Amino acid sequence: GLIGYNYSEGKVISSYASGNVEGTYYVGGLVGQNTGIVSKSYASGDIIGTGYSLESKTFYTGESLTRTYNMYHAYIGGLVGYNYKGIVKNCNAENVNVTGNTYTGGLIGYSNTGKINNCSVEEGTVTGGTNTGGLVGCGKSGDIDGNFIELSYAKVDVIGTGECVGGLVGLLGV
């Protein structure tokens, strides 16, 4: 995207990015990770999360216990990959094809106590696994006067292969 990390004092206003974006995690068409403000901006193109795998081994008295944790395509969004206490308003993603696995959304992959107001996703496809949504893959409780998402919509095809798949939001309020 245009910016990898928009920090809390950062403001992205009246900006756009068009083209293909591919990364491991925290991948967005405009901003990978946001804790600031994104306003009056848009993105278009193919957004792809290639994912990562973390493996750890623990040894107990000569015996090996192996645990494998897989998180592929985590936090992938057409506009913003991961939004933490950030504000996203008056924005849209159009003609986007977003591909991920966990936390995949047409606008935002995962929004943690962030604010989304007057945003849209139009034309394209969102393909993911668990927590996949046309607008937001997963949204943790927000605080816009009691609303997490306000005056926003999605007009895209959503294809999910795991739990919590929705036309607007995969999972909200966890």
User: In percent terms, what proportion of residues is strand?
Assistant: over 45%
Average pLDDT value?
Answer: 87
pLDDT < 50 stretches:
56-60, 66-71
How far apart the termini lie comes to: 28 Å
Number of strands: 24
State the helix count. 0
Topology as a string of helices (H) and strands (E)? EEEEEEEEEEEEEEEEEEEEEEEE
Radius of gyration, whole Å: 16 Å
Helix content: under 10%
Q: Sketch the major β-sheet.
A: 6 strands, parallel
Shape: globular
Q: Structural class, judged by helices and strands?
A: mainly beta
Give the strand order, joined by hyphens, for the main sheet: 1-6-12-16-20-24
Describe the protein.
The chain has no helices and 24 strands. It has 174 residues and is mainly β. The strands form five sheets. A six-stranded parallel β-sheet has the order 1-6-12-16-20-24, with no helix packed on it. Strands 3, 4, 8, 14, 18 and 22 form a six-stranded parallel β-sheet that branches. A five-stranded parallel β-sheet has the order 2-7-13-17-21, with no helix packed on it. Strand 9 and strand 10 form a beta hairpin. The radius of gyration is 16 Å and the shape is globular. The two termini are 28 Å apart. The relative contact order is 0.16. Mean pLDDT is 87; it is low at 56-60 and 66-71.
